[in-house]
Amino acid sequence: xxxxxxxxxxxxxxxxxxxxxxxxxxxxxxxxLHPGTLQPLGPSDLxxxxxxxxxxxxxxxxxxxxxxxxxxEVLCQWRxxxxxxxxxxxxxxxxxxxxxxxxxxxSPAGSHxxxxxxxxxxxNAQEGVKRLTTETxxxxxxxxxxxxxxxxxxxxxxxxxxxxxxxxxxxxALMETWGGRCVASPSxxxxxxxxxxxxxxxxxxxxxxxxxxxxxxxxxxxxxxYALGSVLNxxxxxxxIVGEEAITQLEMAGDDPDVVIGCTGGGSNFAGIAFPFIGxxxxxxxxxxxxxxxxxxxxxCPSLSRGQYAYDFGDTGRMTPLVKMHTLGSEFTPPxxxxxxxxxxxxxxxxxxxxxxxxxEARNYHQTACFEAGVMFARSExxxxxxxxxxxxxxxIDEALRCKAEGKSETILFCLSGHGHFDMSAYTNYLSGKLxxxxxxxxxxxxxxxxxxxxx
Amino acid sequence: xxxxxxxxxxxxxxxxxxxxxxxxxxxxxxxxLHPGTLQPLGPSDLxxxxxxxxxxxxxxxxxxxxxxxxxxEVLCQWRxxxxxxxxxxxxxxxxxxxxxxxxxxxSPAGSHxxxxxxxxxxxNAQEGVKRLTTETxxxxxxxxxxxxxxxxxxxxxxxxxxxxxxxxxxxxALMETWGGRCVASPSxxxxxxxxxxxxxxxxxxxxxxxxxxxxxxxxxxxxxxYALGSVLNxxxxxxxIVGEEAITQLEMAGDDPDVVIGCTGGGSNFAGIAFPFIGxxxxxxxxxxxxxxxxxxxxxCPSLSRGQYAYDFGDTGRMTPLVKMHTLGSEFTPPxxxxxxxxxxxxxxxxxxxxxxxxxEARNYHQTACFEAGVMFARSExxxxxxxxxxxxxxxIDEALRCKAEGKSETILFCLSGHGHFDMSAYTNYLSGKLxxxxxxxxxxxxxxxxxxxxx
Lengths: 456, 456
Description:
2 copies of one chain form a homodimer. Chain A is about 40% helix and about 15% strand. The first copy, chain A, has 18 helices and 15 strands. The first copy, chain A, is globular and about 60 Å long.
């Protein structure tokens, strides 16, 4: 076949280590702080929540960290994931640009999330943990941890943001099929959840609240640890396998991206596709040219674009350490948009840091523009993207249209982080004209920002 | 990695032709008959419904039929599909058997159906057809044709069995996202549909009725043809790419199946995995040993196990040609079970024929036993199977347990024809104990069989 569309690596070429960008940063990442003492966090502060191996990774500045063999044996069921050239989309757009997408929807849970769920479950099981708690928005992370926990004999309890719990019953069914227990958050199962419900009985929930509940349960039970699906360094680390593979696959294709695009909520998907490319630049050498790296977020929850770069809590209940990040304030409740995975008040400290260092750019879109792009993509490339991924599709299409206007044949790479099979009601809403763009409340944002903890 | 679980062929090894079992049958297939004259059908009788290239394939006895290059270019997005060794399931069952599964859920529509939807859409587009009509049960076929039609600029109208239309709104959303138009059947859009509704306003529908509606619209409109997702020879032909790949992949693995298993509704999935193996046997030579080939159907709709081998109509409205097949009678309405893709009164003539020739065996299961198997599979192998595929999973597990009881290390291959992402409400029902086994009505079956057309 003359016009190749698929670049599939043999499993023998699956990366054997994750890339740790902390090794190459020109300025080190500001440390997380203890919420009580405001002093930099030590490993023992994290011990109630995470196993030692994860804490080590969280603080490591080693450049390459080995992927354990049992983890690779699970990942290789769907990894290396395919890289596709979007030839039919290019034709539809009539663009001189070349568009490539790395497709993470091939995992059992249908997104990039198992890339971190599997090692997290494995490390916990190795250290004798019996149960994991976590939060989930759209359910991509919760289902991934339910899947991964089950593989290694762990019980998994998932606090799912109420609005997604109600909007996406099939995601919950998926979590339960894999043996996880799913609880709508805010819930009556935690002190914090009960406190929220006492004040707002109809609260639609938020990732910040669900994190507080999951952390509370883990902190109070010896056999239970907490697993986070994004934001933290070790989660971003596990996702770098995506970008590492993409670099090899684009070499196969004889191409090199001028623009690398990922959607970003907590930041793990974005870091997964972007950090290995930023690493090429930071380390210098033959591949060191500066590529444009674009993070795409929803206009309704624009932490990178509109947030403050400041120390803040990761959760609404103020139980987590303080981390320096772009934040809308931990009290901020984003509108109930369909890209539930992007409804988070903060941004991964590492993503925030590289933004401050000028290594990446950020943009945001309203959801109808994203679904419009998603339908164009589905009708040309076949795959129906997750609402989160539609943000990256929108940006890739806009870059391709810019190339058309400028007569440039640039190479665009984006991560298609997952499929939309569990989000079809959003497509029904869009196709029937019922989907509306939602904005955050400016007054609420101002209040949430004014409530940022005073540090330094 | 020592314990290999994935056998992925490079796209350069994707088959270049389909295997036509008609070339190797020891006894020729009884011909389809014209419903009026009861004489064998000529190509011109099919011309109102199908393009010439499809009619040629339907009647061909050539052993190998080339897959057109533009069709291969679409298929190679997800083909060759992976073959997996189910090592975690083997361990769970503690069986000495080796279990392999060929996974067809990697297509954009999530099942094997696009293997035929893509060539059918392409052949129609080549011959100037503007619109396709079809029927669909669970929606696997309708969504696949919607996807494939869109790629080649065809309008697609899908008559979906009412019970599935109501049970699976997300499948409909998928069809609409790809641009297809979905109509609940029986509908008011056809004479036949109106006649059924006049008699039974609350009819839950059946594939037989939906076929009548789709055929009627195609027959009455010059620019419109009909596309069938199973049963006919050319559809089974297109699916043989599955078994052809599996043969090569098992060679890679150094294995040869003792048992080959596929679920069967109309028969296309079963034929896809089975016919290439039956062909090895029929053609003789080094690979000619007799393997057990097992067709699995629902107890609620057991055409192979309980039907008569007789000439019957493919549809309830008696508009189609008469074909010789195992049938429960075209008036038979199967219970509204969750494996909507298996709710068909008949069986592919080619599958029925090889059953009569003693080349395959048949068995049937109730749906709760199938969902039990599906959940075991999901919790070990990760992938959540479609309800139809759960029938094959059940049979594979039972064969593996038989091997355990007998202390035999046989090799079992089954086709995992699709994922269950659009069927999660069925899993919710199963997990909450609400799923019940349904039986057909013996009296209704007797009546439907007594109504079989009198031929020869």
